Amino acid sequence: MRRWPAERERTTLSGPRKSFFSPRSFGSGELVCGERPMFEKISKKDGREQELIDSYQGSRIVKGIDAEVGSAPWQVMLYKKSPQELLCGASLISDEWILTAAHCILYPPWNKNFTINDILVRLGKHNRAKFERGTEKIVAIDEIIVHPKYNWKENLNRDIALLHMRRPVTFTDEIHPVCLPTKKVAKTLMFAGYKGRVTGWGNLYETWTSSPKSLPTVLQQIHLPIVEQDICRASTSIRITDNMFCAGFKPEEDKTGDACEGDSGGPFVMKSPDDNRWYQIGIVSWGEGCDRDGKYGFYTHLFRMRSKPLSWDQFHRYGGWLST
After folding, report:
1. For residues 259 and 287, is the Cβ–Cβ distance under 8 A?
2. Of these residues, 55, 71, 94, 264, which one is catalytic?
3. Is the CB of residue 25 less than 8 Å from the CB of residue 145?
4. Strands (E), the chain
5. Does 103 qualify as catalytic in the annotation?
């Protein structure tokens, strides 16, 4: 998550394509998205899943814990080649495309302007620090697209970017896409008090320098409730837009938990009781500190980004800006 006091790459976009969300350019995965083969197909129980379902009716809270292997098969690690280190989280949305936060790629105040030659994507990971032979795949990217109206100067509005993998990946128990939210899903699940699951390998506590002591060994997860938009706005002096939502615990709830530095770009997911699929509702974007009283984590509102998708032609129109 971009810690506020408060990139992207010089890329060539190929010839005109259809809207990103058309099946022809999107790749495969929509029919099986949101499933977790290691859990659903073999009836393995996710011990923490019921808490999310309960939150759609009542309230129960947990702190961050180690995620179970295979519980977030859409989780992706963005990995910087030099020096070799964790850059951000991301999510798999098809066999070709990765979704992340734009500020992971482009953030001039911190000299971030990464190219396709700077980043690898690591899929099927659970352990942060080691290569997991047999399950992990490391793939290069050949295209980066940052939202042309991403506002890094003021408030990280439209903090979203797409990464295209050089070769399609094969889905496995550990590598599987998450679903993108439909209007029905957004209207059903996006209510204050309803909880989503955030996953990542980011810092375990607030610090300005990441070290092995501040980073987890394995993927972490936490369940956080969506907060009323007026409370989100009142919690900060930064201008909040409808392209964002916030989540976290209110001071009076006497509970703790948040995303932190290194979790940026990762998914905020919810499970739909209607079809038992997992949908990505948000992208970890920014916050003021980590887990501070009266402060919340802010997320890119993915349905709003998808409900009026920019066509490839529109992206091309901004190609000159993206190349600077």
Report:
1. yes
2. 264
3. no
4. 2-3, 65-66, 75-80, 85-92, 97-100, 106-107, 112-113, 119-123, 137-146, 161-165, 195-200, 220-225, 244-247, 267-271, 278-287, 297-301
5. yes
Q: One of 46, 118, 159, 263 is an active-site residue; which one? A: 159
For 79-112, how does the pLDDT look when each residue is reduced to its tens digit (9 = 90+)? 999 888 889 999 999 999 999 999 999 988 888 8
CA-based nearest residue to 295, from 251, 265, 264: 251
What is the number of other CB atoms lying within 10 angstroms of the CB of residue 46?
Answer: 18
| Phi, psi torsion values for 163, nearest 5 degrees | -120, 130
Q: What distance in Å separates the CA atoms of residue 126 and residue 71, rounded to the nearest whole number?
A: 10
Q: How far apart are the first and last CA of the chain?
A: 24
Indicate if 118 belongs to the active site: no
Helix ranges (H only) for the chain are: 23-26, 49-55, 183-189, 229-234, 302-307, 312-317, 319-322
Mean pLDDT of the chain: 79
Q: 230 an active-site residue?
A: no
Catalytic member of 55, 71, 103, 263: 103
d(CA 115, CA 206): 28
Contacts of 92 (CB under 8 A, 6+ apart): 29, 73, 74, 75, 76, 98, 99, 123, 169, 175, 176, 177, 178
Q: Is the dihedral of CA 240, 205, 197, 311 positive or negative?
A: positive
Residues 135, 32: Cα–Cα separation, whole Å: 19
Look at the pTM and tell me if it is higher than 0.70: yes
Tokens of 106: 């482009």
Angstrom distance (rounded) from CA 17 to CA 25: 7
Nearest to 202 by CA among 187, 219, 190: 219
